[in-house]
Amino acid sequence: MILYALACAPELPEDSAVDTAGGDDSSVATAVVTTTSADYASGVLATVDIATMAITDRIVTAPSDSQVLREDGLIYVLGRSGADLVRVYEPGSWAEPIQEFSTGDASNPQDVKECGGSVYVALYGSTEVKKYDPDTWLLRGVVDLSSLADSDGIPEVANMIERDGVLYVSLQQLDQDNSWVANGGLVASIDCATGTLLQSWIAAPNPTLHDVPGSPKLMVRTGLYYQNDGALGWFDLTTGTEEPRLTEAAIGEEITDLAMVDATHGVILTHAENHDFTAWCWNPDDNALIELFSTPSSVHGVKAVGNDVWIVARAGWTQFMSPTGLIVVDAVACVPGSERWTTDFEFPPNALDFY
Amino acid sequence: MFFLFSAPAAFAAEPVADVPSETVQVEAPAPRGPDPASTSAAVTVLRADASTPASADVASLVESAAGTSVQRLGGLGDFAAVSIRGASLRHVEVFLDGVPLNPDGAGVVNLAELPLGAFERIEVWRGNAPVSFGAAPLGGVVNLVTWQTDGGAVSAGYGSYQTIKADAYGALTRGKLDGNAFAEVLSTQGDYRYFDDNATVFNLLDDHIRIRANNDKLQVGGFVRGRASLGDWRLSLTDAPLYRDEGLPGSVNLPAENARLTTIRNLAVARAEGHGGVWAGSATLWHLGRREALVDLDGELDGAAREETDLSDTVGLRVTATAAPAAWFQPSTTLGGHREALDVTDTRATEDEPARARLVGTAAVGTDLRFWNDRLTLSPVVQGVAIDNRQLQDADGDVFISSIDPRLGVLVRPTRWLSLKANGGHYLRAPDLVEMFGNHGNLEGNPSLLPERGWQADCGIRGEAPRTWPVRLTVDAGAFWLASEDRIVWVQNSQQSFTPVNFGETRVQGVEAALELQAFNLVDSDTSVTWQQSRNLSTDSAYAQNELPRTPPLTISEAVSVHWEERVRVGYSLSYTAANFWDAANLYRSAHRTLHGAFVRAQPTPKWPSLELSVLNLTDTLTEVVPRNPADPDDASRAVSAITDFAGYPLPGRTLLLTVRWQPSLPKEDRP
């Protein structure tokens, strides 16, 4: 059950399906946040004014385990396992989505990308990436990834990054029939124009891709849950090779998420054995780490905007009364202890993006 | 070892007024249940009699009592449990012939496992239950009393979804020995139609009707009992086995096509009952064993593949003694103790679950104090619970839990046709092993749960028409109030799995009324209405003053039938359950539902078999129109929603059952 929750709840380590592409839009003014009750029974949308940090809460209900993403000017709310749906909103018009569609029972949508005139939806519980027409929202086709499945018959598509008309997809290949052990890990590429699988590369176990603004490469995060066996490294899109930069063994903690604001400034989150979380500034060039803050709250779901990185904080694993909310840090200035908390949400935040 | 006592009945007290005493002698013919007019507690005695359709089950009969709310996961044979007066499901203790099936709230009893045909009556005690039930729970007691009548009967039925239901009863008396037995077989495919909105409340284009899959059941159960009378003593041995094999369909958005659960349960009871001049008593030794084998190799239920076996064992002893040293003074006590154990083995798990057990001791001491020719009866009770959790391994709570709680009942009977009642008391319930350590498909325990405590109070009035009238009319009405601390509530998370959590302070208050009418040996009618208001008293703004999950504000039950000398009987039933919230934040609300039922039965003569056609959900109601955004009262938009008690577990549409019943030797009113 816990492992299953890990596969669909981004507040837990190493499961972010969030496209952590950061710093790509300095004109954004608002954060849209999905918030979820502590028991994961209820969820709503909220917004935060970036300039004033004023919260508008409880705008409309949302699936209680949901992801929120901005893509091509629209806001997508993904109801993950149990809801298995996508709601598409015009930013600021929350009363009713412009479209809502199911992705199929137990399909567990994790990520959305607009690419080549189609909207692609990554499904963690399926062998397919579904392709929709953004005008009619009808299903245009599917990208069959069953040839990349592991022994449970599903490749576990975690997230997608778009570069030059190609979708790069991380496949975590966890065996759902056998306590979610790792059967490997792949990165695959999909041609957006044709919706066909181009090629795949073997990656370290349990990979997740992260965008790096200003870099031709991507960052790949790997490693099993609760083990310090993973690493952060560059992923070369032309050769499909990994270049590990920072290992969990070196830091002594599990790396749970990452957001890069540019090629040399990012924030990583780590999870210690005592269940405290720590945020660090990280420069992949020289591997320099600067500790920003540590907290018993469960922090995850980082997102970059400008030089800032926003971090979602929910109740800690051992300290249930630890603070919840959003934490903002400056990834470039990187001043330890300078984090800013916004805590006045009715429910703890679960995911966020900006518009 | 089990050599003592008891009698649930009170003692011979000379009635000095025109108020009839409920007094019976132990050796008198088997009592037909408590007299609601002569006890301070609110009690409804339900019987599966001629006015009950063959499609009824224990859950539907219990639901017809005022103050009750039944929650189901599906249709006939699917899981069903009862809440009384807004208390949590586990705060209702279910007894089978006085033996607790969930002692002190240990687990929710699945009413679908209990064959209605086995029971002569069902007593629903709301609030202050008698001392004979031991340390009473906050919600109340459902006591199922098996048939003890001579004779025999058989019935067989076939209906929708390939449902087969057959039962047989037989009894025999030889001198000082007697025995009886009952067996029921229930089989169904459970493949009913349901409405599926694809979880997309804004998108009506993908709404459709689907067929429930992997919802088949085979259940075989019953009891066999032997008794011997030895002077003032009577010894009995009872065994009640159950075998149940079922598909677990999962929620509609996470359907399970292959997950299965096989349950084997056995209740063995040895009881000695005796009486003397001024005393009566009983000792009951029981063993309740339950083995549940869950096979979910594809991890359909919660994502984790399982091949799990849960073994739970409860061994208990309960001693009840009652004395009547004076007509006005009738003390009684019940002492009980049991050991409950849970051993979970999952061949696919990477870590072994430790076996867990705990010891529970309970005591209840009380008396009836009768004054002014029984016009006033005071029933003070002190009850205690002590729990030793040392064998719970990794529980987060206290190792020892104990509580001594008072309660008091007051009954005033100014005339024989009028009773005025009031009750109040304090109660405690520790979280049970499933609540703490359950990990059973879509149930996941919470080792951090705190014990639930609470106050309960009620008052009521009961009036009966004079027996000389051609119309038998009984009116029962009351108000109740229930305040809990750390109430344990099962909430559904995003995957529609269930996890128990402690709420802080909560309150439920309401009124209930029941009207029973039998007119001119022609018409039978039972009506009950319950209105209740539940509130979460949390200071958290997300939950403050919210309704408690699955606590419907209004429930209405009506059953009316007309017959002509039992040769032909036509009946109609109505069940209304108001919309209620699934979640503590009150963002998701179930649809209200109004379900109609009907039956027609023909029996040329009492010696002939009867033939009955009964219909559940006569109007085939699958959906209701509901507010699309219940969190915003200003939002007038509407959505279509499936009829359901639990999110993702729709209830079935029209269900027919054709039944033939033959009871060659029983008088019709004693039909099991």
Written account of the structure:
The complex is a heterodimer of chains A (355) and B (672). Chain A has two helices and 30 strands. Chain A is mainly β and 355 residues long. The radius of gyration of chain A is 18 Å and the shape is globular. In chain A, the strands form eight sheets. A four-stranded antiparallel beta sheet of chain A has the order 3-2-1-30, with no helix packed on it. Chain A has a four-stranded antiparallel beta sheet with strand order 4-5-6-7, with no helix packed on it. In chain A, strands 8-9-10-11 form a four-stranded antiparallel beta sheet, with no helix packed on it. Chain B has a single domain, classed as TonB-dependent receptor, beta-barrel domain (Maltoporin, Chain A, Beta Barrel), CATH 2.40.170. Chain B is globular and about 70 Å long. The two termini of chain B are 33 Å apart. The chains are: A mainly beta (355), B mainly beta (672).
Number of domains of chain B: 1
Could you give me the name of the CATH homologous superfamily of chain B?
TonB-dependent receptor, beta-barrel domain
Q: How much is the radius of gyration of chain A in Å?
A: 18 Å
Low-confidence stretches of chain A: 1-23
